[in-house]
Design brief:
Number of domains: 1
Number of strands: 5
CATH superfamily: Response regulator
Radius of gyration: 17 Å
CATH architecture: 3-Layer(aba) Sandwich
Largest sheet: 5 strands, mixed
Strand order of the largest sheet: 1-2-3-4-5
Strand content: 15-25%
CATH class: Alpha Beta
Structural class: alpha/beta
Length: about 120
């Protein structure tokens, strides 16, 4: 992450991948140490100390996966299963983290948030 700061990046957009979810604590801690504002594509990250999280809940996505697996185990041909996409997205703002890294979150974003952590 030091390379991120050295490259002149002013913020991070942490994508929604299982690898990043597994290492969320490390990513959140490094971003905070470097005082980089970061938005995570899992709202769960903001609840764990990240600045902003926007997207579907990780558990919701896993439930969708589980439903598909059940259908396959019950004999449905995978090609016959329609693609499911998340329908519920949440914006979580962690003002406690914003204060810790010295970043001000615009009021408009705070007002749009589904959940604000103070």
């Amino acid at each position: 992450m030091e390379k991120v700061r050295a490259s002149g990046a002013g913020a991070l957009n942490v994508l929604a991948t299982p690898l990043f979810f597994v290492h969320q604590r490390t990513i959140i801690d490094r971003a905070a140490t470097l005082r980089l504002p970061a938005i995570y594509q899992w709202p769960d990250f903001a609840e764990e100390g990240g600045l902003l999280g926007y997207g579907p809940r990780y558990a919701q996505v896993n439930r969708q996966r589980a439903r598909m697996v059940v259908k396959i185990l019950r004999g449905t041909n995978p090609a016959d299963i329609p693609v499911e996409q998340p329908t519920v997205f949440e914006l979580i703002v962690n003002l406690k983290t914003a204060k810790a890294i010295g970043h001000e979150v615009p009021t408009a974003i705070v007002q749009l948030a589904d959940k604000v952590i103070e």
